[in-house]
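Issue 218. Parser rejects a valid record. Input:
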Amino acid sequence: MTSDDRSVDLPHHKAEADYPLTSLHDLNNMFGAAMGSLQLVARRHGDDQKTSLLVNNALTSLQHIQDAVRHAFMKRVDAVPPGGFDPSHKLASGHATVSAAANGHDLFFAAIEMTRMPMIVTDPNQADNPVIFANQAFLNTTGYEMSEVLHKNCRFLQGPGTDPDTVANVRRAIKERTDIAVEIQNYRKDGTMFWNALFVSPIFDRDGKLLYFFGSQLDITRRREAESALRRAQKMEAIGQLTGGIAHDFNNLLQVIIGNMQLARSVIDKPDKIVRYNDAVVTAAEKAKALTQQLLAFSRKQPLEARVVNLNRVLTELRDLLSKTLGSHIEIDLDLARDLANADIDIIQLEMAVINVLANARDAMPEGGKVTVSTRNLRLDTAHRDDRFGGLKPGTYVSLAIKDTGTGMPPEVLARITEPFFTTKGVGKGTGLGLAQVYGFVNQSEGGFAVDTEAGQGTTIIMTFPATTDALYQEVPPVRVEMAGPQGKGEQILIVEDNKEVRELACAILEQEGYTIFEAVNAQDGLDKLATTASNVDMVFTDIVMPGQMSGVALAKSVRKSRPNMAILITTGFAEDVHGHTNSTEFETIYKPYMPDELAAKVRSVLNRKMDHRA
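Output the parser choked on:
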């Protein structure tokens, strides 16, 4: 292990034990542990957060069962004569029946047939690796009849939400004849989706010949829903930590905007001063836009994706926000390593993790103090093993350490800091989700999490992530087009917007560009105008969220249906408004706040494309 200047402590991870299946009594004990947790889950209708913990316990027990069954299956295979299974006894090649199992003496097949855990066996020696055995639990879970399952590849369980990458990983494992455990969206016969914890293992005979693949499954839909609820709660806590600082920033920005606009009004006869005051307003507005975009990133509902980032760049860009989180009474110092390697991680989750750690540091220093945020390159190799690094593979990593000069933590608190809902703060001052989010994010990133603390001596929290040599993700900034003159050619545009000030601004921008403008205050008013005074418009420009029973997207779809050649442009301040009502390519979109030249360019572009399409 080598590091620039620092050693990094990480928790030790225990290896899984082997659970051989020796009797039905052992099997019943393991199922008892699993089903007991699942029954508790069934009773916790209103506590989705704690549901996740119970289901994890059940999954552990069921994983042990899968290991045990595989162990027994391999013993069973070792006893198979060269000619294979006797078709009249247990498993008929190509017919997959266990009808004799319940009445016979085969412990393995009797156990699998009676278990409530869905299990199947496939034959990779046949074309398309078909299912040759399925127990009743599998049929109950999926809703299929035995005749609809046998001789088919398992892809019949896939559907529109099934992740192609996960499917590819399963196929790769089957091709390479290795074990694999995944969580995948599958579909029942009636079309309903369920999250499936799938465990697949190859079965070989004593000579190493591949005979079968054994698969066990578990419906983990409730666990996934609980995890989603937990992530939403974690995001809300992070947003809460940001609120105070961002509100302060917005008050300052609004002061700049209001003050400069009033000054511009007072010097209407002095163009040079008007330009200066106007520039100050534009600068303040752009800063406010950046703040809102950063805040919205924390509250997004759509899944977030990993991308190649550099921690130094992220921390440098976040510095002002980090200072606001800590408050003016706490000093922050960035100690960033030179030539820091990149990491492939979720940047939004990283920002949340840093904010959550800093919030804890702030609360540990009520009288003020100092926080040092440092980064380092780190190499782990087999020659420098340390039990504290047991969970990390040898390789190159980047570490992020956040050190405070606060009160530190006693051992009894340290032992519980990553538990969801554990908090030492007073009622209403913390949910206990902050460090749970940090720990979960680091582990999901295949990294390490460590804490160095002592009561009265401060705390250092270390996050370690696998390094990558891939190039940084590059966001393409929007190109601001300077217009060479009015863009309109007399086209008529209906603007549908409930906010009076925003509507008047859009009207002023587009009228200045040479368009003829009609106004509507909501979607229904827009439909009425299209049927009367605005019947010959060339474009509908509508907001999405408006009062009334019809949204802007519903209006756009109605117009598209009745007037397929109509140009349509929608606008909103929230990405979720678009993603929640329409796909990303159905309608052209411009996001608020937009600059006048951005709106003019977008309107011209949409009109031109529609004209080209007509031609």
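Fixed in the parser; the record now loads. The chain is about 45% helix and 20% strand.
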